Amino acid sequence: MSPEDAPAPRSLAEALRGRDDASLAALLRHRPDLITPVPTDLTQLATRAGTRASVVRALERLDRFALQTAEALAVAGDPASYDELLGLMAGDKPDRAVVEALPGAVAALREQALVWGADDRLRLVRTARELLAPSPQHPSPTGLGPSVREATAGMSPGRIQEIVAAAGLPSTHDSVSAVAALSSLFSDRRRMKALLAKAPADSLDVLDRLVWGPPYGQVTADPAPRLRWLLDRALLLPTSPGTVVLPREVALHLRAGRAHRAVEPVPPAVEPAVVHRPQVVDATAAGQAYTALTTVEELLKDWDEGGPTVLRAGGLSVRDLKRTAVALDVSEPVAAFWVELAYAAGLIASDGEADERYAATPEYDEWRERPAAERWARLARVWLSATRTSGVVGGRDLKDRALSALGPGLDRSAAPEVRRRVLTLLARLPEGGAPDAETVLARLRWERPLRNQGVSQPAQGQPHPPRGEDDDLRSRLARWTLSEAELLGVTGRGALSAHGRALLGADAEPEAGAGGTTVGAAAALSPTTTVLGKAVAASVADAEAAAADAARLLAPLLPEPLDHVLLQADLTAVAPGPLHRPLADTLGVLADVESKGGATVYRFTPASVRRALDSGQTASDLHAFLTAHSRTPVPQPLAYLIDDVARRHGHLRVGAASAYVRCDDDALLNEILADKRAATLRLRRLAPTVIAAQADPATLLEGLRAMGYAPAAESAEGDVVITRALAHRTPPRTAPVPVPDGPPVPDATLLAAAIRAIRAGDLASTAPRKAPDAAPLAPGELPRTGPAETLATMQAAVLTGEALWIGYVNAEGAASQRVIAPVRVEGGFVTAYDHTADEVRTYPLHRITGVAELADD
Phi, psi (5° rounding) for residue 589? Predict the structure, then answer.
């Protein structure tokens, strides 16, 4: 039988049964939730495709024109012809763009199992019709009200006859034919035009206010004449006391047959607002990429000895975020972005100690040793796939609690998709093209209209969006993406850079995830774990390859690290570019950063020199270091500063008594005792060279330094204590895992295995069987035979090679139906080729509930 002669499907399951494997694979790729877990057969697949949660998710992923097509089908007849649908979409004067785009929209809806049936009998799945069809509680997105038949369902027969007579129609013997006559009148353009020509002008004004929705209005117990004229002719129908509705047929006549006020078959174009030279874009982006690296390093350096404490509910306090913003010289939202990016990359975490604080992880030390381009590529790749969204920091959750940086509740599962889509739109522009942000937002609203209306449901385990966020979350995510991409150096001057284009392929292939299987399909997916592991490994490999390519393109644009500075007579040193890490670390101890930018200015002070001496350096070490790394001679003022601080450094020794001061210079101790500023230290002389204090050693050290001295700490053995701070690190931590937006899209191998399992299960459930002598089995019921009959039937099938239909209960007690071809029966087991699992298997006979032969056809 040819496909043209095949009978029309009577259900979605039959429609799916008529699809080939490529069509089923397309469905499962668009709606991966349908195979989580894998259905046992096509009937279960159709049932799952009609569930509310799955249909809502599918509708949310439709573009505006496909959604408008589904909305038109929701108000059309059931079933509807293609011509009826075209009339609803294009109206009396079809637009060429609508005519050309409609077949593709119908094909997309049919491919995703939202619509089934041939073009002469298009059916929207019942759940989608319920979601999109009009009702007083949920008006239709098209603005159309119920049909005449639906609106008059509760009306008395006498009242219906009165309306028929007022409309100039002959009376009928029953309400059904009267309603049909009204519907026919309202659907006849010529007769409706004649009827409305008799309407008072103010009555037409009422219709004009209701025609594009909402179609419901309020009336009093004694309606005005303009309303009475409409009510008498059923141009307005009562739905409840005091409420009337404009029937759908009347509204369609007034709309010239169109279901929507404006149909959008073509997506809004994203055009460049300005075009820069690609070299300028790449150079600008590279400069910002370098700034991004230095900002993250400054953040981690600031937290090197232990960062802010962790709030009891998790996250940073508002005060700590402000301090971080001041330290980085950025605004608080930007500081939250850098903190969240470092956290998502696994560079910072909480240390888990009693006084829990944030600190750098061991991974940070490894990341810091990599080349600059590789460090940037890792940050950019993490940003592209992270679901934690710093833009919501400062908002409120459903319990009116503030959302803090590094705290819970920041995951937005749509963020990776939006980031990737925004960059893809930028990539389609000419090189150097920077678009107007509003055109990008308009395109995103067209591509996902329902999600931009805030109807998206959060992923499992993900909190709802916090209170105070506007409904247009995708637009907010897109705006954040444009600004964050500029901060990170993915774009330059609003245009996508060359290394940004290379990075875009990092997450091209979605990662596959494991899903459970039901009893009918478990056998066919026995290698699923291996398949999924390979898919994840392949996806990670692709991401790393794209990041490596981006790093390769970025590397030549980044400044080379320098091994020298320029010392100046005003006790400053100028670094004309980035410094090698050992040089930068040492210089950061010896001097204070005074200004940043293309060149960094360091200032030498007595305190900074003393800091270097405290870390174990000597004056000669500092002179040698500056001589080796300065392109200019060491200025005399700087040499004098180092020698002067070193001469006095360690002359006083502070140890623990509670604390004491030891010095060989008796006159210096006398000077300290006579100083009024030392009163708070409560000093007294114990010996000519020793002074005891009531303060602890740390307080004593700080007090003497505040008085202008340069004491050094002393150990119990009398040695100078080197006070170099040790970097605080957390135990090894894993980076936060992104919260997925639903099940991952399956790869080709998993799709093939799932389709094979569904086909085999469908064969087992629909294969014709010979009816037993007893009463026929109900659909889905397992065959029941005795042990002797089961054994005899199995042994006979081994000799004849025939296939059998069996009922089987596994060790967990789950029952399933299978089609097998027995090969050997011995020792209480049957070895057979299982058509359901598509492999040879062995089954215990005592777990087989019964057996039946398949019908000859």
Answer: -85, -40
